Amino acid sequence: MSTVVDLSMPTVPRVRRTPQEIADAAPVTGERKVLLAAPRGYCAGVDRAVIAVEKALEHYGAPVYVRKEIVHNKHVVQTLEERGAVFVEETDEVPEGSLLVFSAHGVSPAVVQSAHDRNLHTIDATCPLVTKVHREAVRFAKSDYEILLIGHVGHEEVEGTFGEAPEHIQIVNSPEDVDHIQVQDPDNLVWLSQTTLSVDETMETVNRLRARFPNMIDPPSDDICYATSNRQAAIKEIAPQADLVIVVGSANSSNSVRLKEVALEYGARRAERVDFAHQVDESWFEGVATVGVTSGASVPEVLVRQVLDLLAEYGYSSVNEVVTAQEDILFSLPKELRAKLAQDGDTSRRLGGRGAKPTR
């Protein structure tokens, strides 16, 4: 029997061009500087979810199973995997009787029931702002409203919300979908949205819907989360001044992808998204004086700092933080986990979010 030999070439690290080579290729007029967006990075819901997995590993031991990615960030997922987290797509991949964490994006009642049927112990790390949208969907469905859910088909958050009342919900994927929407009663209609969308695109969709359905009502409060809105507002401030915007965030992170789109829409000459600093192409710096930097709501600050270190190597050592909002939102850890911490006498950090570096 013949043996298959793998003759693929090993990965060779790319050799970067030097700062002098970049400067020679396209001279820069003016001071090289970085405009660093604030707020950026972790939101309270992400922080809470990541802490929940870390605490579960600490108090229950590995493996701790997590349905889907706990948050949409490669670095976070890889780090938790190294500590003993096991990420699965569905509950049937989890051994019966094991511990399963639901991700920050939320799950449908069918997933909850499936976990129950497999006798899984669960920790619900759904972001409280996503839970709010779920409750709105349930309440409007009980009142027999038709619900137009603005969001991206296939996104875990949208799947979870849709699963709360599938017989009452239609998903509106983009403004262009509006012309094809058919409703039973235009006078008994409400819209909800995914929490991580572009604010501007969502309002464009809402305006188009309202033009077709003037009696459509609004949700009781804004569904797009504060962190998504704040990060988009910060990059809108920076974009007109930036020759290049670098967004740190993963490709499956809706809010990170939106940040790149918003940067271009609001005047950045160029915008790129990267997971890690090594993915930054130094050729992007040719002729660039001002670089804007931000990160999605599921990105730890260490990844931003690594990008700033790389920029400093190429002469962008002047960093000016552009602050457009202050965030002090805190969320308690999931109730199932709080009970375990109390049982074990763990009085350490029990809050996720920003603020005065919460310790309890």
The fraction of residues assigned to DSSP E strands is: 15-25%
Gyration radius (Cα, Å) is: 23 Å
Largest sheet: 5 strands, parallel
What structural class is derived from the secondary structure elements?
alpha/beta
Number of strands: 14
Condensed summary:
The protein has 360 residues and is an alpha/beta fold. Helices cover 35% and strands 18% of the residues.
Provide structural commentary:
The chain is 35% helix and 18% strand. The chain contains 11 helices and 14 strands. The strands form 4 sheets. A 5-stranded parallel beta sheet has the order 10-9-11-1-12, sandwiched between helices. Helix 4 links the parallel strand 4 and strand 5. Helix 5 (128-142) packs parallel to helix 6 (156-162) and helix 8 (226-238) runs parallel beside helix 9. It is globular, with a radius of gyration of 23 Å.
Give a quick set of tags describing it:
single chain; 360 residues; alpha/beta; 5-stranded parallel β-sheet; 18% strand; globular; disordered N terminus
